């Protein structure tokens, strides 16, 4: 594992915070280790225009979420769907096997949200609450500004 790259992402995570113009909100939680994350995503013209996250979790969850946001920023949804846990681990110069559940939770949540986004007619809102792998994932597709429609009702 590349300790320096990992620690940089864990201690100085990229793209942290709330994204006011998000049109997709994804929450994911790992019942085994109590990690929780929320991604706020702005998708336009089938591209991830912006992404931010908030998190409650270990340093590996922070680092993997930071690395994932960097990987998907500006990418097409097809590219996002092609990413896997190994791509995230590669950005961090590797992760130990016992920590691979962290990138698995993050990428599983993002994939579930992209699938819901694509299945939702433009201009409509939708939500899904599902178990993906062993993680609870709640995705919300918004049709109004985040501040008007985001609900913490599903907070994990």
TrEMBL record:
Protein name, as recorded: Nitrogen-fixing NifU domain protein
SUPFAM superfamilies xrefs: SufE/NifU
Domain of life, per lineage: Bacteria
InterPro entries for this protein: NIF_FeS_clus_asmbl_NifU_N (IPR002871)
Gene3D superfamilies: 3.90.1010.10
Biological processes, Gene Ontology terms: iron-sulfur cluster assembly
CDD domains in alphabetical order: IscU_like
Signal peptide (from-to): none
Annotated source species: Pelobacter propionicus (strain DSM 2379 / NBRC 103807 / OttBd1)
GO molecular function: iron ion binding; iron-sulfur cluster binding
NIF system FeS cluster assembly NifU N-terminal domain span: 4-120
């Amino acid at each position: 594992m590349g300790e320096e790259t990992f620690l940089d992402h864990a201690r100085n995570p990229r793209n942290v915070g709330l994204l006011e113009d998000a049109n997709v909100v994804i929450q994911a939680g790992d019942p085994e280790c109590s990690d929780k994350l929320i991604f706020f995503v702005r998708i336009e013209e089938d591209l991830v225009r912006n992404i931010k996250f908030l998190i409650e979790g270990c340093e590996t969850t922070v680092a993997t979420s930071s690395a994932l946001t960097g990987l998907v920023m500006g990418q097409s949804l097809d590219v996002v769907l092609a990413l896997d846990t190994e791509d995230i681990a590669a950005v961090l110069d590797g992760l130990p096997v016992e920590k691979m559940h962290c990138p698995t939770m993050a990428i599983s949540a993002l994939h579930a949200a992209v699938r819901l986004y694509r299945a939702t007619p433009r201009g409509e809102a939708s939500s899904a609450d599902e178990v993906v792998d062993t993680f609870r994932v709640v995705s919300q597709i918004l049709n109004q500004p985040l501040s008007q429609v985001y609900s913490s009702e599903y907070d994990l």
